[in-house]
Amino acid sequence: MAVQPSTTSKITVFNVGLTVAHVGLRDVLDHRERQRVDRTVAEADRARFMLGAALLRTVAGSMLDLPAEAVTVDRTCSHCGRWHGRPTLPGTALEMSVSHSGAVVTVAALLGGGRVGVDVERTGDRPVREVVAWTIAEAQFKAGGGSGLTLHRLPPPAPRHVLTLATNRAAATVEVVDATTLLPPSTSWQPDPGRRRK
Ligand SMILES: [Zn+2]
Q: Which parts of the chain span the membrane according to its record (predicted)?
């Protein structure tokens, strides 16, 4: 899908369930993302990060007309310079935000300038009101903070989850899609023949 110049901005929010994570998604990540996957001990955290990074690349690739593994993602932290910052796509007009919690991974994409921040949280035992307030604060922070941000409370992507979006593009339309079919299916993954030999 090639990028069409557009006069109205649209934000698309791509949701997937954690159950679609599979080891083949590691193949679309760059070496630093793979290192982070490999260093993450807790299985659910590892799956959430891998799925988030793979979904970000898959969405960006489809919007930039590139293979997911060819997308350049910069994760330099603006505070300390380490590789754990908010992902940006240098040299493109694509703004993205990633969030994962509980059973859900979500990526928001805005093409053509502007800021976007998305936050998903599993409510667990907490009062929904508290969780909503938390997601608002997180989404605003990810969208760069400050006044003039427009908030969108989006439909829960799974039971007992809250999803909130913030943007400085007040007129932007927001579309929420299930991104499961965008991801490479696990059947497409084959073990590297070299790795099977003992
Ligand atoms: Zn940092």
A: none
| 114-168: pLDDT as tens digits | 999 999 999 999 999 999 999 999 999 999 998 899 999 999 999 999 999 999 9
- For residue range 61-86, list pLDDT tens digits in order: 999 999 999 999 999 998 999 988 89
Q: Ligand 1 center to residue 4 CA distance, Å?
A: 35
Strand order in the sheet with 104-111: 94-101, 104-111, 10-17, 173-178
- Distance (angstroms) between ligand 1 centre and the Cα of 77 equals 5
d(CA 172, ligand 1 centre) in Å: 30
Task: Evaluate whether residue 84 is within a structural domain.
Answer: yes
Which residue range is the domain that position 32 belongs to? Answer: 10-182
pTM over 0.70: yes
Tell how far the Cα of 86 is from the centroid of ligand 1, in angstroms: 10
Q: 142 alpha carbon to ligand 1 midpoint, in Å?
A: 14
Side chain identity, residue 81: G
Tokens 């649209």: give the residue.
Answer: 10
Question: Smallest Cα–Cα separation from 48: which of 152, 123, 122, 117?
Answer: 122
Instruction: Give the DSSP letter string of 119-134.
Output: EEEE-TTS-HHHHHHH
Q: How far is the CA of 95 from the centre of ligand 1 (A)?
A: 20
Residue 23, domain member (yes or no): yes
